[in-house]
Structures are given as structure tokens and as C-alpha cells.
Write a structure and sequence with these properties.
The structure holds two protein chains of two kinds. By secondary structure, chain A is an all-alpha fold. Chain A has five helices and two strands. Chain A has one domain: Four Helix Bundle (Hemerythrin (Met), subunit A). The longest helix of chain B is centred in the last third of the chain and has 49 residues. The chains are: A mainly alpha, B mainly alpha.
Chain lengths: ~170, ~110
């Protein structure tokens, strides 16, 4: 009888011990959504397309603000670029919205679409220069910065795991 | 198990993990503020030179102002990443300490 009781008492303790590694393994915290290579690549592609567009359409100015090299006025091709850029941002947004702990990236992508709207609005009024895209550049940099941060966490986590398993 | 020593090691690991992020935050913020100042000046000069209209400048300055919100968002991710790495580094130290004390890899 006594033996049977001690078995019953021991059982929860054994179960708890068995669960301990599982409990500890899940004990790492996650505040930022993991790195996504597809989003990173899409962001890089959009930056490249935007830069190519700006080289073709933005006028160059000197230090006094006077035009040194004329840019191209707003036309059908420019309109297509703005539409496609907003489309690319929307596609990234759709993917980002599927992930938890990703609120900041989602907001940056929503804002990115507005930056293209603002550049297009200025372009419709007259010729654009490099500074016309300053806000757009900052938002793109913020998006890239978020990808770098996520990549860094992923890399350092891999490093920690590797060093922990291979001391 | 030496808990005092473990706590010190946990804090040191957390400090190292968060430290790298602080450098990123500091450099990034400083660079973006300096750029925003230059951009506003350049837009004003372009209006004065007749390169762009005041209406264009208004839209572009609004874009510069709005984009600073994205810097804040990117820095929030960096701060969260710092906290995540600091806590996880400390947990890793604790895990190793428990395993050493137990003399077997139970965690």
C-alpha cells in the first residue's frame, strides 16, 4: 500500500521533470517576427527599380538648387512606374500581414505606398529632383533597416545555438 | 549552483547582446536627422532657384516629415530585437548553469 502511494506521489514529479526541458526550450522570448528572405529580396528589388526610375526622371541640381541636368516630365511610363511600385509594396504588405509580431514592418509598408503617392503628386506638378524622393528614400531605408535587424537576430541566434551545441 | 555568479553572467550576456543594437540605433538616428536637415534646406533652395514650385515643396516637405515616423518604427524593431536578444542570452546562461549543476544535460 505504502509502495503504491509513493508511486502515485512520484508520478507527477517524474512528469514534471520530463516536461522541464520542453518548458525551458520554449522559454526563449520572441518580440520581433523572424527574418523573411522573400520580403528582403522584394524590398531590394523595389529599391533598385526606384533608383533606376529616379536616374531617368529626376533632374540634377547644383548646390544653389539650379538645374544642371534636366529630368523627364510626368508621362505614361512614369505613371506605370508609380502604379507598379505601389503594387510591389501591396504585395509585400500582404505577406507581412500574415506574420505575428510584425506591426512596425506592416506600418512602414503602408506608409511606403503613401511616399510613392507623394512623389507622384509632386511629379505631376513639375519636374522632380533627387530631393523630391527624400521622404521615399527614408521610408525605403527604414524598410531595409528592419530586414537587416531581423537578419542579424537570425544570424546571431544561429551562432549562439552552434556555440552552445559545439563548445 | 553558484547563483550569484550565474546572475552576473546573465547580466553580462544580456549587456553584450543589447550593446550591438544600441550602436545601430545611435548611428542610424544621427544619420537620418542630419539627412532630414539637409533635405529641407535643399528643397528650400530649389524653390528659391525656381527649380520647383512652392506646391511641390509643400508635398515634398510633408513627405520628409512623414518619413521620420518610419525611422521611429525601424528603431522600435531595433529596440525590441535588443530586448529579445538580451533576454534570450541571459536564458541561455541560466540553461547552461542548470545543466552544469545537474552534471547532465537536462535542459
Amino acid at each position: 500500500m505504502r509502495t503504491r502511494n509513493s508511486v502515485w506521489i512520484a508520478r507527477p514529479a517524474i512528469s514534471l521533470l520530463a516536461l522541464l526541458p520542453l518548458l525551458f526550450a520554449s522559454c526563449s522570448v520572441l518580440f520581433v517576427s523572424p527574418y523573411d528572405e522573400v520580403t528582403d529580396r522584394a524590398a531590394t528589388d523595389l529599391v533598385t527599380k526606384t533608383e533606376i526610375f529616379l536616374v531617368r526622371y529626376a533632374a540634377t541640381t547644383d548646390e544653389t538648387g539650379k538645374i544642371v541636368r534636366r529630368g523627364k516630365p510626368y508621362d505614361a511610363e512614369a505613371s506605370t512606374f508609380y502604379t507598379e511600385a505601389r503594387g510591389a509594396a501591396a504585395a509585400m504588405l500582404l505577406r507581412s500581414e500574415q506574420k505575428d509580431k510584425n506591426d512596425e514592418e506592416i506600418q512602414i509598408l503602408r506608409n511606403l505606398s503613401n511616399r510613392y503617392d507623394q512623389l507622384e503628386a509632386s511629379h505631376r506638378l513639375g519636374s522632380i529632383t533627387k530631393t523630391s524622393a527624400a521622404g521615399l528614400h527614408r521610408t525605403l531605408r527604414a524598410l531595409v533597416q528592419v530586414q537587416l535587424t531581423k537578419k542579424h537576430i537570425g544570424t546571431s541566434k544561429e551562432g549562439t545555438s552552434a556555440s552552445a551545441s559545439n563548445p | 549552483m553558484d547563483f550569484k555568479n550565474t546572475l552576473e553572467k546573465m547580466l553580462a550576456a544580456a549587456r553584450i547582446a543589447a550593446g550591438a543594437h544600441w550602436n545601430v540605433v545611435s548611428d542610424y538616428l544621427e544619420k537620418e536627422f542630419a539627412e532630414a536637415k539637409k533635405e529641407a534646406e535643399a528643397i528650400a533652395l530649389e524653390v528659391a532657384a525656381g527649380t520647383k514650385t512652392p506646391e511641390q515643396a509643400k508635398i515634398e516637405l510633408q513627405s520628409v516629415k512623414d518619413s521620420l515616423e518610419d525611422v521611429r518604427l525601424a528603431l522600435t524593431v531595433e529596440a525590441k530585437a535588443a530586448a529579445q536578444e538580451a533576454i534570450n542570452a541571459a536564458l541561455e546562461v541560466l540553461r547552461s548553469a542548470v545543466n552544469s549543476a545537474a552534471k547532465v544535460a537536462i535542459l
